[in-house]
From TrEMBL:
One of its GO terms (biological process) is carbohydrate catabolic process. Residues 1-18 form the signal peptide. This is Mannan endo-1,6-alpha-mannosidase. PANTHER family: MANNAN ENDO-1,6-ALPHA-MANNOSIDASE DCW1. Residues 435-444 have a biased composition (Polar residues). Its main location: membrane. Belongs to the glycosyl hydrolase 76 family. The chain crosses the membrane at residues 453-473.
Amino acid sequence: MRLHHAALAALSTPFTTALNLDVNSTSSLSNASSTIVHGLMSWYQNNASSTPPTAIGTLPAPLYWWEAGAVWGGMLDYWAYTNDTSYNPTMTQALLAQVGPNNDYMPPAYFTSLGNDDQAFWAFAVLTALEYGYLSPLNSTTQWLDLAVAVWNTQVRRWDTTSCGGGLKWQVFQSNAGFNYKNTVSNGAFFQISARLARYTGNQTYVEWAGRSWDWMNATGLFDAQYNVFDGSDDLINCTRVDHTAWTYNPAILMYGSAMMYNYTNGSAVWEERLSGLLGASVRNFFSVENATNVLYEFACEPENTCNNDQFSFKAYMSRWLAKSAIIAPYILPEVRTLLTLSALAAAQSCSGGNDGTTCGQKWYVGGYDGSYGVGQQLSALETVQALLLLGSEQGRLAPRVGSGVVIGQATKTSTFVLQSQTAAPGGGGSGSGTRSADANSANRQRMRSWDAWPVLGLPVMVMVFGAGILGMER
Ligand SMILES: *[C@@H]1O[C@H](CO)[C@@H](O)[C@H](O)[C@H]1NC(C)=O
Ligand SMILES: *[C@@H]1O[C@H](CO)[C@@H](O)[C@H](O)[C@H]1NC(C)=O
Ligand SMILES: *[C@@H]1O[C@H](CO)[C@@H](O)[C@H](O)[C@H]1NC(C)=O
Ligand SMILES: *[C@@H]1O[C@H](CO)[C@@H](O)[C@H](O)[C@H]1NC(C)=O
Ligand SMILES: *[C@@H]1O[C@H](CO)[C@@H](O)[C@H](O)[C@H]1NC(C)=O
Ligand SMILES: *[C@@H]1O[C@H](CO)[C@@H](O)[C@H](O)[C@H]1NC(C)=O
Ligand SMILES: *[C@@H]1O[C@H](CO)[C@@H](O)[C@H](O)[C@H]1NC(C)=O
Ligand SMILES: *[C@@H]1O[C@H](CO)[C@@H](O)[C@H](O)[C@H]1NC(C)=O
Ligand SMILES: *[C@@H]1O[C@H](CO)[C@@H](O)[C@H](O)[C@H]1NC(C)=O
Ligand SMILES: *[C@@H]1O[C@H](CO)[C@@H](O)[C@H](O)[C@H]1NC(C)=O
Ligand SMILES: *[C@@H]1O[C@H](CO)[C@@H](O)[C@H](O)[C@H]1NC(C)=O
């Protein structure tokens, strides 16, 4: 355990937050989650009777289409973890409003911003509905399975062997900037959807694609041998170099997919090693800010105040998938509980801004509200606080379901998670200065991007890639 003394003090001192969070009390956690959800839903207006049908279920501009899918995923968890059904009609309406003409989350109204990762965040939501037995208006969960499978079917057809030996491109449409970028979030999302469908259905096709997409990401260097996870590569250079920026949501996506495969394979050594490796690297890279050890932070942009709207929400997915991973790979539960408990306390402390006094901020390591607010900030705090309800739920109640005929074995007592030495922390380790990438081997780190890893590119490529990462199109 790496409990920093300040963080330990925070755990044991009955300090007061605007949310009055008692991490050992289900009713307190539930109550706090409900307060944060209220703030989150105050941003949601696109269910008014005047809303055009294509906009129902989406968030106001400049927020992109994908983030609404992410919000409904978090809201489904809120319902499952708290039993609060108040938002169910809103969620159901939203989830079904955006399926598009082919029932595969490809609504034409959003084609200009629709990448594989964007589509995937809606698939994650319906997979959650499926796994927690959330009933569709047809009184079954089959509709959610059909939607997730339809998304998977569109994506498997986009697997592109004309460059880089395979992989999904970031964008679906050539007209969108980023069409040549083959990134971790798109391929990691396809990996996670494959893994979840594999575990739910037991269908070998999904098992094979989970393995194939993982192997391709490994071969392409989207993560290294220490499980530092990078942002992406480019098919114009046949993926010979990698952009090493480290965002929390990339390892998180891989972690839950690995946990799903670990669980589906009844605890195979291969997936255990991968899950442990991803968790260890995440602890080193994203929970090591100075004076706030074990408090989750967005390493690549929070210290410099350069996060965009997409990035404000990334911590939500780290918390979401850390907690869900611990349910299906119980051997990591003690470490995950420590990380999420200290992060939830810090997040709750940040939820003390705005007119309501419970608006959540962005940087949880500053010991209060930092003046920042929005959907991403609210969602990140929500998913971190409510994650403790999942971790505290009684055995089995919130285990993701499986389809008929699929049998999952119980965890063995032999699996253990041992956090490796902190000294190799690439850019983490608490110095608070230096790199914002997770490149353990780079001698010449830069604050934001590891351009040292890139060859001299033609200007259009440079502009595209730079624009993709820096100019607010990270999604
Ligand atoms: C919560 O429970 C844990 C384990 O029983 C204990 O160590 C900790 O002090 C408790 N925290 C609070 C705030 O009561
Ligand atoms: C829930 O929060 C409200 C407002 O902060 C408070 O009045 C109430 O006592 C809380 N209930 C529980 C069970 O913590
Ligand atoms: C829209 O959604 C909000 C948040 O769930 C809810 O409070 C409101 O009643 C909904 N409005 C309509 C017209 O459904
Ligand atoms: C939700 O309901 C279940 C089943 O009744 C119960 O076990 C669980 O404690 C409830 N959760 C909360 C947060 O109240
Ligand atoms: C679903 O179940 C509800 C409540 O049991 C019922 O009112 C409704 O008619 C059912 N809908 C369908 C499509 O069967
Ligand atoms: C592109 O990369 C793939 C995967 O490494 C490799 O198999 C292929 O030969 C490369 N193509 C070219 C033209 O270099
Ligand atoms: C397994 O999944 C694939 C891809 O969706 C599908 O084509 C195939 O029919 C499925 N097999 C079975 C036995 O359901
Ligand atoms: C990545 O690929 C290398 C080379 O094939 C292999 O030795 C290694 O085990 C792979 N690692 C993971 C985590 O898949
Ligand atoms: C950590 O705490 C020390 C001592 O209070 C302080 O000097 C330092 O600036 C803090 N670091 C950060 C990043 O806040
Ligand atoms: C896991 O174990 C169960 C029995 O406990 C067995 O039915 C199932 O086939 C096993 N799954 C795999 C993928 O080996
Ligand atoms: C798989 O997940 C279930 C549900 O949480 C759990 O009971 C089981 O022990 C897990 N299996 C392994 C091998 O960890």
